[in-house]
Amino acid sequence: MTQGKVSVNNKPQNTGGETTPSAPPTYEEATSETKVGAFPAPPPTIPLHPSWAYVDPGSSPGYGSGGYSGDTEMLTTFSWDDKSVRRMFVRKVYAVLMVQLLITVSIVALFTFCDPVREYVQTNPGWYWVSYAVFFITYMMLVCCSKLRRYFPWNFIFLTIFTLALSYMTGMLSSYFETKSVVLCLGITALVCLAVTLFSFQTKFDFTSCQGVLFVLLMVLFFSSIILAIVVPFQYVPWLQAIYAVLGAIIFTMFLAFDTQLLMGNRRYSLSPEEHIYATLSIYLDIVYIFSFFLQIVGAIRKD
Length: 304
Hints:
By secondary structure, the chain is mainly alpha-helical. It has one domain (about 75-304). It is built from ten helices and four strands. It has a two-stranded antiparallel ribbon with strand order 1-2. Strands 3-4 form a two-stranded antiparallel ribbon. The longest helix has about 30 residues, at about 85-115. It starts with about 25 loop residues before the first helix and ends with a helix.
């Protein structure tokens, strides 16, 4: 009786060449542990950072899904693609710049409208030279030391000292002019800077590629100042000071356009988004110099 029974483990051999379908496994076999290596193991899943979820093939390696990895250079070629990073950089620069200009205008107004303060700064010129030394030292430290201008909070501390020193110098210069002249020059400077900024944002002309021309013009201004310091005390050329002031106003207006386009970043050269202190310092210095040259133009015209 037992010879006719066929078990699963003792299947008869097929000798006729026909393939006999194998019987389905029993419940015990299906639920038992699989031998190691019986089935290939599934590939392991790698947990990715959210910023790696999507990277545009044409985008810059440092801008994966909105994240900025940092730029070690101050002046680089145009290689960024994330506009949100540049917009945040521009807003930060102009926010700090507005605070600097507010401090400078307040000190200029104090030195111009308050007679006791005006008399004090005019009778104590030693403070001017102290402020000039502080201005020069802080300026060289912020320009030459990249780690310092990127290290918070010391970058803002030195920028504040720089702003106060230059504001004192500008206020003392304004104290020697009439109130109407100072107010007029402030208005002209504001209009010129606004027009140059809007022009720099809209124009297709690339000022960042004119570094050599600006350097030559700056050297011309420098040597003109040396000649002016020698000639003007003897009053050989009455209009020389006015010509020098006009030349300086034009050159630093061009520098304002140059620095503005470096800030925008959509030209041949651009500033790294980490250089907000350097960008603020450059644009602020351009505006103060433009105002100072306008004051010299008004002063030279009134003397003549």
